[in-house]
Every structure is written in structure tokens, then in C-alpha cells.
């Protein structure tokens, strides 16, 4: 196993925190835009929000998730933390799987579907069952994404449950 110097660790941790902050900020932006979608009556505003979310899902969501995962894995492997030595790291890994499924896949699909449903059905789309279901999935996905990200931040700070027992 390769180890890194304290300075290298600090740079890597700084990158990890930066990518994590971008991911959290993007998720909050998704929440704001999805609340706008759910409450707006103007179809052009709703379409613009969906398009903005779709662009974010193709850019900053993917980049921040890749950056966070890569730097997190590097920190685990190149420091004393390891990939499975501590329960809090295992919990973060499970939450990361949720973030990966919801982020680049879920948000991308739900925003693209929202754009399609809006452009196919037009102004009365808010009454359309598929559109409402898609919007509900998007809101639920954003909520779960935010909860998992907040939980990962808290796990990183408090590091609960301690070290796993050696077998």
C-alpha cells in the first residue's frame, strides 16, 4: 500500500472537500429549481428550470461525483483509514452508491423525461399523470440525494462507531 505525505494528504483532502461541496451545492440548486417547477404556472419557466437541471446533471453533477469518488478512494487507500477498517467509512461507501445512482443517472433521466413530457404535452402538462409522477420522482430523488450527502458530511466530521474488529 502506498502512503502519502501530510502535505499531499491535505491537498487531496482539500480536493475531496471541494468536489463534495460542489455536489452539495448542485443538489441544493436542484431542490430550488424543482420547487420552482412544482409551483410555477408558466410553462416556459418550468421548461427553463428543467433544462437548467438537465445541463447540471450532465456537467457539475457528473464531475463532482467522479471527483469526490476518486479523491475519497485515494484518501482511503493512501492513508491509514482504509476502505473497510471503519464502520463510518463503510456507511459513506453505501451512501456514495446511492448518490451515484441518484445523481448522474436519476437526475439525468428525470430531467430529460420532464423536458420531453413538457414539450410533448405543452401548457397543460402539469395535469398530465406521467408528468406529475416524473416530478414526484425527481423531488424524491433530490430529497434522498440531499439526505445522503448531509449524512456523509456528518459521518466525516463525527466518525461514529469506531474501528471494525480484526478477524
From TrEMBL:
- TM region(s), chain numbering: 64-83, 95-115, 135-158
Name the UniProt record assigns to this protein: DUF2269 domain-containing protein
Q: Which organism is it from?
A: Paenibacillus pectinilyticus
Question: What are the UniProt keywords, alphabetically?
Answer: Membrane, Transmembrane, Transmembrane helix
Amino acid at each position: 500500500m502506498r502512503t502519502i505525505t501530510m502535505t499531499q494528504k491535505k491537498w487531496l483532502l482539500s480536493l475531496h472537500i471541494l468536489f463534495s461541496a460542489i455536489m452539495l451545492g448542485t443538489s441544493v440548486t436542484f431542490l430550488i429549481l424543482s420547487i420552482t417547477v412544482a409551483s410555477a404556472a408558466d410553462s416556459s419557466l418550468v421548461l427553463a428550470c428543467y433544462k437548467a437541471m438537465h445541463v447540471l446533471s450532465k456537467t457539475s453533477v457528473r464531475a463532482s461525483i467522479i471527483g469526490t469518488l476518486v479523491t475519497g478512494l485515494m484518501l482511503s487507500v493512501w492513508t491509514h483509514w482504509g476502505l473497510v477498517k471503519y464502520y463510518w467509512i463503510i456507511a459513506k461507501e453505501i451512501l456514495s452508491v446511492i448518490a451515484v445512482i441518484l445523481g448522474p443517472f436519476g437526475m439525468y433521466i428525470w430531467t430529460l423525461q420532464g423536458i420531453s413530457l413538457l414539450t410533448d404535452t405543452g401548457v397543460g402538462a402539469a395535469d398530465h399523470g406521467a408528468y406529475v409522477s416524473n416530478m414526484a420522482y425527481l423531488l424524491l430523488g433530490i430529497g434522498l440525494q440531499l439526505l445522503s450527502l448531509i449524512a456523509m458530511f456528518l459521518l466525516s466530521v463525527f466518525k461514529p462507531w469506531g474501528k471494525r474488529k480484526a478477524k
